[in-house]
Model the fold of this input.
Amino acid sequence: MPLSVIGSGFGRTGTKSLKLALEQLGFAPCHHMVEVRTTPGQVDFWCDIAEGKPVDWHAVFAGFRAAVDWPSCNYWRELAAAFPEAKIIHTTRPAEQWWASFSKTIMESLTTRPPSDDPIRLRMRAMTKTIIDQNVFGGRIAEKDVALAAFHKREAEVRAAIPPARLLVLQPTDGWEPLCRFLGVPVPAEPYPFTNTTEEFRAIARG
Done:
């Protein structure tokens, strides 16, 4: 089952809400950082990827219909090539709003969280520090100007590389209409999902 949807947007742009929305629309399961922690074999895959080892993307995403959030969003170019029929969704939000959320969640967890004795958590932390802090922000994740520049650069690169017919740029406030139109599916009667607030993220991060 190849990926049908690939997310290119950074975490804290509504990726968890998009995951739930895609699954509700039939693109389930959708890969997200949550699945790296909970799906057997995923930590091994992503640790190898972080170390620069060869990647079989079809093996990494076997059984998944969609992929959003980190770590997969860092590899949007590779995934767009590996799954040429997949559509690309770039989640975004006003840059200052993104930074306000990111700095209190992902950045905070990578820079201030006390060390864990759990081997899985230790491997996850090493992997995320490489894929997110080093590969996206050059090891300067806590510097606002660096983070905002990377945020703008990602959107510009995606817009430049992906043909408009294959790309949807989506904000969390856009709701169902543009997403369903892009994917060619009916609009659900239920409200668009809204989840993974700063408080919810911190509670999960604490374990």
Q: What stands out?
A: Residues 50 and 130 are 6 Å apart (CA to CA). The first helix runs from residue 15 to 24. The first strand starts at residue 5 and ends at 7.
